[in-house]
Amino acid sequence: MGKKIMVVDPEKCTGCRNCELVCSVKHNGVSSPSLARIHIVKWDNPSPYIPMRCQHCEDAPCMAVCPREAIFRNEELDSVSINHDRCIGCKMCVSACPFGAMGWNPKRGRVFKCDLCHGEPQCVRFCDTKAVDYVETSRLGADRMREAAENYAELTRRYGR
Amino acid sequence: MALNRKIAYIDLGSQTIALEPVPMDWRRKYIGGRGLDAYLLFANTPGGCDPLGPDNVVIISAGLLGGMLASSGSRTHIAAKSPLTNLYGSASMGGFFAPEMRWAGIDHFVIRGKANRPVYIYVHDGEVEIRDADHVWGAGVYDTQAMIRKELGDEETQILCIGPAGENRVRYASVISGRKDAGARSGMGAVLGSKNLKAVACRGTMEIQISNPEEALEYNKEAIDQVIASKASQNMQRWGTNFMFGITNTTGLVRTRNFQYNQLPNSEELEAENLDQHSVGMDACFGCQVHCRHRYVIKEGAHAGAYSLGPDFTSLGAFGAEVGCRSMDTVLLGNHLVNDYGIDTLEIGSMIGWAMELYEKGIITDEDTHGLKLEWGNDAVVIELIKQVAFRKGLGNILAEGPLRAAEKFGPESLKHVIHVKGMSNSHTDERAAPALALSVAVSSRGSDHLRGMPAIDLYNLPLEVLDRIYRRPDGYNGPLTSNFGEYEGKPRMVMWQELCYMAVESLGICKYHTVFLSPNHPAFREFSRLVQLNTGLEFSEMDLWDCANRSYTVERLFNLREGMTRADDWLPDRYFDEPTRLGLPGVRGKCIDRDRFKAMLDEYYRLHEWDESGTPTPELLRRLDISKL
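Structure tokens for the assembled complex are given below, as produced in the milestone run.
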């Protein structure tokens, strides 16, 4: 099977924040959006709601700035992962992340971020509209491509070639 | 954990705040949310108090599973003595306020007294403060929230507030959170206004411990899948409650022109599909996969560019069929205005429909309306009256008083045309062909309402096996049940069961669309019992939940009896009995409610509740429920 990546489609997001709830329960056993590794950014205007979380960057600023090489590329999941044994809690990664996706849990004295639930992201599982999705890279854009093609096909069906 | 959330007792007069734990005894007896609110309201208000005076108490609460894994633990409940009915006032709203309340450490606010100037309450991680609200007094609901968020410097703050209607003590003013989450029925906004309380703002980062996180997560997935597998939910995901308009209007179940008709012909523009061109996407309450609301922007006219959420079936009735209008633009604009002004969409639609019939019949004239032509289908007049009511201008100042007080002004002839129960106007549905639904409207503990005990699935004529599976649990009811919605027999049980089911979900803080309301296949007591156990560790059997709901419903009844309600108040307007429906499909056309059979249903309903023939709970029931002392 090919590698998978997390993608978001803000047009599909209803802003329910169920992803925040299940994420904090999965990782911390509590309901607490402040501990969730995904967050829905919402606006008090017609803009779409935007799911934000770790992008698992190829050239990750958090990894680059870490003085202890505690942040590394997980080849199996193609993700950016944290080795808490090496982490000294300096929080440089928190500052470096351009998306605000690295959190700090004062209770545990640890940074935290999306770990893809080790290949079964719960946010994706619980999102009925699939505004957040976890798809094989070979299938990226397949749905949108099909949707766009459908329009062409419909016109052809209706008016002929 | 979920059980360490506090009750915040706040006296706005003396500016004192006390935080108390929720005693375990209260949890076991009333669960939380609306259930515990019933007890708190009964215990904290003196009998006969002025609903708009300082002795009235307003309670704002989250349910036991608010913010937790419960398919949608989103609901906030608001209770106070109602300025509309002088009886039990109660309103429930979705959105994100209840979860944020709990993350901020509070399960119930019990607010009494009157501030000497406008204030709002702010809770942050267990800290409660009363803050100045002079600068937001007079602002609409949308601006109020934006200004408070800006002042607090935190976009994640969730705010419940009133608009101009609440400030002006319109007797059916709502409280609103976000753009449309409305605790609208029974005038809770006017109570906040009478206390000079503009808003309550919450922000919290306190964790809610889940008792058994792994299993709760899995079971929550099952519950969600159970909900979204139903056709009703799938229609809601696409069009919201508006999906019901086309089918109910065709059938002849839509209250039209103040109950003169049961269908608005040629109203295709009001059908749900026409919302697609206005919608910019769907919107959901906390955790909910049903996402039943549209997000839309007003395209043209004086309010062009305004962004709102909705509308619901009720707004299609209020600004459509009831007033004889056929314009989706009017519905969308009306819905936006009632949200921003903070008015109950249902009540104002009924008030306008009633005024239009009085005008049609010459009971009120241009003199009463200050020249406004109250003709059926006059879109501009509907919009104008919403504004007049919110700001108590012209005719609006009288209509703002609600049906019974306004009828006193217009004279006894006008009273005959009021479609109300206990002083609260009926929904924009017509129940003359459906006795079960009619009974639920008549006996509702907060005055006429479709969300208190309506067995909506009765309209599906479900097979008896399905009814048996639902309505005989959990107490082993062995009386009659009937499939046909035109029947009278067996229906009181369905109403009573729905009342306790809705009480249970509202005590848990779950939305009714996630239980047996529009689909027979949604979760009920069995599923709730498991959700409570996995989330909180508390063991409530199906029967325990049933008993708690019964206890809380009985306390609401006791409150109403204390405030002077009698059996005569559990009754319908004469039109239900005397004027047969004129339109609709066979089975619905030519129907009205039979008085004698309705009386027999009411007797049976009381008997099932273990209330005597006057509607008073029997001493044995009170003893068994351990509420004899109330």
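The CA atoms of residues 610 and 620 of chain B lie 8 Å apart. The mean pLDDT of chain B is 97. Further analysis is deferred to the final report.
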